[in-house]
Every structure is written in C-alpha cells, then in structure tokens.
Amino acid sequence: MALLEVEGLRTTFRTWDGALRAVDDVSFTVEEGETLGIVGESGSGKSVMALSIMRLVPSARVEGKVRFEGRDLLQLPEEEVRRVRGSRIAMVFQDPMSSLNPVLRVGRQLTEVIRLHSGADAATATARAAELLSTVGIPEANRRLRDYPHQFSGGQRQRIMIAMALACDPALVLADEITTALDVTIRAQVLALLRRLAAERRTAFVMITHDLGIVAGMTNRVIVMYGGQMVEVAQTVDLFANPRMPYTWGLLDSLPRMDSDRTEPLVPIEGVPPDLVHPPKGCRFADRCRFAREVCNERIPALQQAAGAEAGHLVRCWATQDTPAGGWLADVPRTAAARA
What pTM was computed for the model? Predict the structure, then answer.
C-alpha cells in the first residue's frame, strides 16, 4: 500500500463570477521514501492541491479521496486531522514571511510543535529546536531561538519553516517552493539534507517547484500540471529525455541551457493560462499550442499512456496519443517539434 493515495481530487472555490475549480480530477500515489515533483506555471493548481491534501482550504469544497497511511484524511474529524498534520505529514509553505507569527519568538514556535506532538518537556523540546536550526544551517542556534522572525533574513525564515516541518520526523513532507528565498550555498545544503532524510529515514517528499533543475536532481517521478489538471506524468529521467506534452516542451525550452548559443533568445510559452471559471471546452492548453487541431478545441483528451513511451508515461494530449482522434506528433522528437 502506498504511503499517500490521492484519487479524483477536486477543489472548487465559489467566486462572484461562478465556481472556480482550481484542482480538477487529480490522482497520484507517493511511496515511502519517494520524492515526487510537481511542476507547472503559477496558477496551475500545485499549491492548492497540497493545501487540499492537508485540509487547509476551508473556504473551498474539496472532493475525492486522500488516503494517508490507509486513512482518508478528507473523512476524518478535524481533531484527528490535527494530530496527523505536523506529526505524520507536514508542509513547508511557500511564503515564510506570513507563515511565522511575528509576535512570538522563533524558539516558542518551534518548541510548540515538538511539545504538542511528542509530549516532550520544555528542556527536551528546546534542545531539539536548537538541533533543528543547526541542521538547516542557522549558526548560534541556542541564541537565535530567542529572536523574533523579523530578526532573520528571508532565507533564514525559510530554513526555520523547513526545520519546523521536520521537527517531528514526519513520514511525508509537502514542500512548496522551499528553495525560492535561499542562496545557492544554503539551497545545496537544504537539498542535501532532504536527500539524506529520504535515504536514511525513508521520508517521502512532494516537491512543488518552478525550478526544473531541482526536479531533475531531486525527484523520482514528475507530475506536470496545467489549468488545474495533470497533463503529463513520468519517471524523471524519461520526462526530461522524452517529454510528450507540448506544454512540457514549452517549459523545458523556456529555460537557458549551458550548451546553447548565448545569442539565441529564450523561447517563451505565448499566451496566458485559461480562465478556470469558464474553462475551454477541449484541451486547456489548445489556445497556446502551436500543434492544436480541431479535436483539441472540441474534446478533452484523457490522461493515458503516451504512444511509444515508457510504461507509466501518461499524457493528456491528442497530438501525442495513439488514438483515432490524434497521435500526429507521437513519433516527433521533442526538440524538433518544439522548434517547428
């Protein structure tokens, strides 16, 4: 049995213009010790999906199943979810500026998590908090426990959030853009720490990020999201070597490459993401896709095995599926197609 099983997850917000489905029929699993990458543009539903798993979007209607260690988190009483949240499953939020209480010392916020979930006494919790700060690269940890959040830099606050998530040795950590505020040296240290936890403690991670370099170096599998939907799922090596979704091609081609001509401009993905209050009738990427045909605007493609790809490489695209309606790009190498 997988550590986390997400099945048919849908998250819908009520707005003045109508219902906005930010997460639309998302299903995946995470195994013990696995690192799963979630990538996509801003607004693709990555963060809302993670918050929905944690049951931290009370203003939205969340449907589907989220089984963690065999229990459906969406069906548990709130008190039971609070026991699981922070101890067995933790989340590192995207914005450390708003995640830490500005009027409480950092030590108080760290020890509160430890004492609440482990029952440790004050001295033990303080020692553990100092150890965690040292682990994430904050010097003079014992003294810094007495400081307030505003006395730390943005990168240090992010490291404090990582320490807080790891405080109770959770089985699963949802990490939302955890390296955004970190400099290169500290980012390398934090990523090395996460790799060690995955290897030694079998901690599973869901890495939500825009940084495809982190995805390439950290993850076992990757889910590409667009418009609230999963549009491609593959093993990390297979995704980078043989991506099948034109949106994934666009993400990869928009990045600078060490082996490319510096005089060549980057290739952006033209257009804007779809309106999720009034989503397109067909493929949600069709308006921005240079390979779209009539069927792309009329019917939503299913997420299914990509033609000619490794087993388990799923894609939501008529152009690369071996079906009567599509498959016209199934045998075209990604680089050649993207430059067409």
Answer: 0.90
